[in-house]
Structure formats: C-alpha cells, structure tokens
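On to our target:
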Amino acid sequence: MMATSGGWKGISPLPRANRQSPGPVLVPDLGAGVDQVTAPFDYAKWGGQLPDLAKEYADNKPVPHILLQDFLRAEAAFRAAQEFPPANGEAWTQYKHHNENKLGMAKQELFPPGLKEVTEELSSAQFLTWLSGLTGIPGLIADPSLEGGGLHQSTRGGFLNVHTDFSHHHYHEHWRRRINLILYLNPGWRPEWGGDIELWDVKMRSCVAKYPPLFNHALIFTTDERSLHGFPEPLRCPEHESRKSLALYYYVVESEGRIAHRSTNYRARPADGFGGAVLIWLDKKAVDLYSRAKARFRFSDEFASRMLGLLSGKK
C-alpha cells in the first residue's frame, strides 16, 4: 500500500485511467459551532483536504471507500485506546456463532468519557456535513442507539466472515444504512497477528483491498449489497491482546415506497470449500431468522445474549 496525503490507497488491480472521476466537490463551512482546538476530529485539517479525499473515496475499488491515518487528534485517540474496556467485562454482548466470534457494546452510557466524547463528535451535525461531502451522500444521519455498532473487540481466535451488512435499521423501518465508519484503536498491533479487514469483489472471487487494524486509522466505506467485507482468518494475537474498534453506521431516511430489507449476508470464499460454504449458508439463514424476529418483537442483542448465557448455564 502507498501512503498519500489523506490516507492509504487500497490494493486494486484496476488502473486509475479506467475509473470514473466524480464531479466537483463543494467544501462546506465546518467551522460554525465547533471548537477547532479541542474537538477530537480536526475539521480544519480534514476539511481542507475534502475535494481530494472525495475523489479518492469515489475512485477506490471494489466499493467507494478510504482509509485515513491519524484520523483523530492524537490526544483523543490515545485517551480512547487507554480507556477501552477489557474483554472480560460483563457489559459486553457475545456475538459468537459460525460466522463470527467477537464482542460488542452499543450502550453509550457504558462508554468511558473519552470514548463517549469521540462517539458524540462523530455523530455531530458538523461531522455529518463533512461525511456527506466525503461520500457524496446527502442527508446522512447518525444512530444514537448504535444498533449493531459501538465498541467491538475480538480476542485470540476471533474472526468475522466476509459479508454484506443489514440494509435497514431494525427499529426504524425507513432508515436505510449507507455508510460504515470503523476506527481502530490498537496501539502496537503487529502484522503477524492478522486481523486485516478485507474487501472482496461482488462475485467472491478475490480480495481486492485489505487494511490492517492499526491505531487511529479509520476505514470509511459505502455499505450496500456489493460491500463485501470482513476479517475471516482467526486472530493470532497473544492472549492478553485484542482487536479493538469503534464502529459507527450512518443512515438516510426513505419516506416513500415499499421498503425491502436485507439481513446480514455472509458469503463463502473459494478457500472455504463446499463444506465450509454449506455451514456459512446455514448459519446465514439462522441469522436472517433472528434479524426478522428482532425487528418484529423489538428485543435487543443484549437481551438475546443474556438468554443464551442462561441457557448455557453461565451467570
């Protein structure tokens, strides 16, 4: 990968000459109401680069995306990493089935102060204006409930199979999911531990781009039925280490027409073989049933996690 002024270029087999260039990008006024000195996100720095970043975002393959280094101000990023809750805490929701092995925490009231401040900043009106300028998607809104997102953590052996995300918010029928932002908070992460996020082509023939989960790097990408991503190889980090991230999802409101919802769609890689593909498909169908029941009966992942814990004999 090659460094640029705004981030890291993804691995892509397509020459830039064959890519379509986006139209002109208008740089919004991001200064109103923002303390430029203390905000975790540096609006002066990233706002000035917005036209170039927007072009890079649109050009990158297999879906529009960009990885930005030094995403937060250094002091905000270090504080967030230092405060990140340990994996043995009781507040974590268990996401453990055939297609994933990770922990999640979506309740902002449980976040330490530094992580809560970052989450609030990246959900603010000023940041949403910047994000719409980057992605070319107007009207983006943040999700205060952090449904499916928030803090994520995976210990040794953790993984997330390649998938596309659920298309609509489980509790807001007309909220269509459009953008993912994943901020990595892993000081000292080593390449041999794995954990690179992979972006695959729509036919699942090959990984087109991959990025390690390095400290204060943020991956932003458009999420739709083409946005295949994951870290499918089990982590090889030491027992005392973990892959930590803050995941934020952004939506637009669709107010008219029939809403067609899609659940998380896990896909098999060529290396998974026939048997692996069958198990991935069966688990995907179970997740789809769970997702539909969740939207219908409005229970939370935390509730489901507690029930599974009781059934398994865990306190």
The first strand starts at residue 65 and ends at 68. The CA atoms of residues 123 and 280 lie 34 Å apart. The helical segments are 43-48, 50-59, 74-83, 113-121, 125-135, 273-297, 301-311.
